Input
Amino acid sequence: TDTSIVDIDEEQKKLDKLLTEKESMEKKIDIIHKEIAELETKHLEVEDTLDEWDGEKLETQYSEFLSLSKAKYELNEKITTQTEIRKTLQDQKQHLDGHKYDENCDICMENSKSIRSQKEEVNNKLEQIHIQINTYDSNLIEINEKITKLGDIKTLWNEYKETKERYNKISQNLDNRVSKLLGGDNELEKLKAQIQNKNKDIETYYENENTIKKNEEVKQKINTIKTQINSDRNKLNQKNNQALKLNGTISSTQNQI
Output
């Protein structure tokens, strides 16, 4: 830095500003260190909780639970549908069973053959539906037994999932704080370097203060001399002009004589 053009008051203001920024940055870094310490403690606590679970096993069991629940829902839908069909067929059977006919009437007997055929068809359908519903019921019992063996897997999975999400969130916050800390450290180093350079500038100024003052005095003397020279030059020019006028007057007078 050219100390001859240094404004020491301005430089001191810049130094004070840098020192204030440094102090502020150090406080921010201290806060970040505390936040990191707290997050690391929480991180370890949640990590210990996660270690108590077998995540892969829970995920497999929960996937099985979802599959069984879907199958159970579909079976219940089928049972409902078959039950409604059975009810319709039972109503038809009841209607056919209530049909009366005269055995001595040929036409009536002919009609009764059609009715018996319908009754047989209805009975066959009812038997098939009965078998189908029994099969569904057996499958449903088997599914319920499997779901029971899984225990309260839904609650366990939700707890595990929430804990894992909390762990991931803490990890993300921790990474952000560490990144912020690195940025703060870099900024602090820059401020320290700027303060060091500014201190050197101020120290250099005071070390060369006498030289600076002498330079100023020399400049003032030079300016004074320049001013004097200019003044003398002006006076000389005035005298020359006066001499020229006087010579002109003398020559004019001689010519007249």
About this structure: The two ends are 75 Å apart (CA to CA).
